[in-house]
Batch of 2 targets.
Target 1
Amino acid sequence: MAATWPPASEAIADYRIAVRSRAASETARQEVLAGRAPFAITGDGKEVALAREMQPGDWRAGYYRDQTLLLALGSFDVRSYFANVYGDPDAAREPAAGRQMANHYSTRVLDADGNPHPLERVHSSADLSPVASHMGKLLGLAYASALYRADPALASANAVHTRGGQEVAFGTIGDGSTSEGIFWEAINAAGVLQVPLLLSVWDDGISISVPSDLQTTKHSISAALEGIRSDGRTGIRLHTVRGDTIRSSARSTAGRRRRCEPRMCRRWCM
Ligand SMILES: Cc1ncc(C[n+]2csc(CCOP(=O)(O)OP(=O)(O)O)c2C)c(N)n1
Ligand SMILES: [Mg+2]
């Protein structure tokens, strides 16, 4: 697959986001080590490419490495990022009003008056602390879209929640977390139900202290999942790409997932 590159102005703007995000990561770690913040496991910069393939109305269900994704989506800025790290109780600065762990992200679905926000942005479901536990939510979001697609009357009756079922659920997960049971349940169900779901596994070969060699069959989640690769009717599509080709891969997969095929991309961290 030939890589298609964005215009230079877009690439520079994205690069700025990635650099800013990395700088925020380093500061957040310093704040933890200095005792001014309780916790920070942070992300890097590659997720900016994924953000560019998401559309208003899509959903995210991810984990603590996703700050660049949210920065690139405009879900928050660096100020709000640190409001999250410090547990700021003001919902105007920190969507979870300080009730989440640091680096656990969300966007508000309802406004201050209790009305649903219009579908003009990407929504983030609230992150969960037990690793992989968001996989059930990711599947549920994608399944809801599949049901809306199948029933236009249901979709139009719920137009504040769905764009006729055309939205897609984007997930992220670390390679170590793929050892959890719910990961396998969700991936299997996605392959059976053929829901619009795109999952990126950030394959850095480590999960805090345990190398993936010691916990993943065949030392590779892609290899372990080969048995449920799509046969055209059922199963999932698998892609393994390096960080520098994320964008072209996401573009190609984004088009197909809007046609309702579950995908999983195993990606190498940059
Ligand atoms: C069920 C559960 N077990 C253990 C932990 C503690 N824990 C937090 S992050 C983490 C490592 C996850 O590694 P991986 O999924 O590879 O993500 P990475 O940080 O490498 O991106 C662990 C073991 C947890 N949060 N939840
Ligand atoms: Mg890992």
Target 2
Amino acid sequence: MLVKTILNRCERFKCFVYGQVRFVTQAGRDSLDVEVKPRKGSAALCSCCHQAAPCYDHASEPRRFEFVPLWGYAVFLVYVMRRVDCPRCGVKVEEVPWADGKHQLTKTYMQFLASWARSLSWTEVSRRFQTSWEKVFHAVEYIVEWGLQHRNLDGITAIGVDEIQWKKNHKYLTLVYQINGGVVRLLWISKDRTVESFSAFFDMLGEKRSAFIEHVCSDMWKPYLQVIAQRVSQAVHILDRFHIVARINKALDEVRASEHRRMQAAGREPLLTKTRWLLLKRPENLTEKQEPRLRELVQYNLQSVRAYLLKEEFQLLWTYISPAWAGKFIDRWTTRVMRSRIEPLKREALTIRRHKPLILNWFKAKGAFSSGVVEGLNNKVKLTMRKSYGFRHYKTIEIALYHSMGALPEPDVTHRFC
Ligand SMILES: [Zn+2]
């Protein structure tokens, strides 16, 4: 069987045919060079208006477009590009179906690499296919850009907004997700966590679609609250459980760390050594070893223990069904915290009081979304960022996150290469 026959099966072009296949060794790398020629009687297309146009001239050298490798050999489509004399656009380079103007890789090969980049790191993909990290990046970028242009943004009724730290010196990203009706996907990424970065999402979505949004989940970050009030005032705004619990945990951790330091300085028994996760975990998630240690620790009259018990008690909030009773619980709990003289927790109690109506919206919307949805997404973002060293540039992280979490459509293929 000829390579040509295989190619005609998996990648056939209407206006072009395959010619000779040669084995070429270039710079120590073996490859199959497949000649591509225009099909007899088919006209060239203008790359500007996509219409047929008379041929103007040929390039002096053929171009090599990298295709999906075969049995460890690189494969190139070799073609002498034409220019057309388009009556609408003037003299333009022709359009070819296997590549776009910018890339040396064929579209099919880019889709192939991008699909591997879903399961392997970009570095690993470049190693496996003897290509460069940059080429893998461009492949993913191409697929993501195609997906963003072709995605359907109708039917969004619930969104969640989240901020994530991506650089040490307090650099944040704003992420917006769709979370309704079984569709969970990343809709938007922008730099910073300002009013502008979140507003830009609604500019992209447009007023018409924004009007269909019924629920918005967020944390208590002020610029977000402001944008939600302005741009989707019709929606029920929910402060989600994950972010509230995360704040209380952070306060508890502050209490523990400073008490630990005070005890060390006073030369007391180091009771709080390695208790961080003991206190932060939910009791049901403790390991067999941790359980007895926690039981012992709570016997001591420590500020950290009192803070721990208050944190655990707060979890009861989520068992309420009626917003009214949940509200009463919040009043009782915050009063107790305010009397506790534990400053970091008092700070959070005040915040919770201030945002009580929005927190109670969580109970009003109950059943609309699972409470773990925002938390799950947040974890997935962190995982993508961890997996990928070399994501120091914003553009790279943007492309990587859209690729892994955007649920973007991809160009139709006649043959699956992997
Ligand atoms: Zn044209």
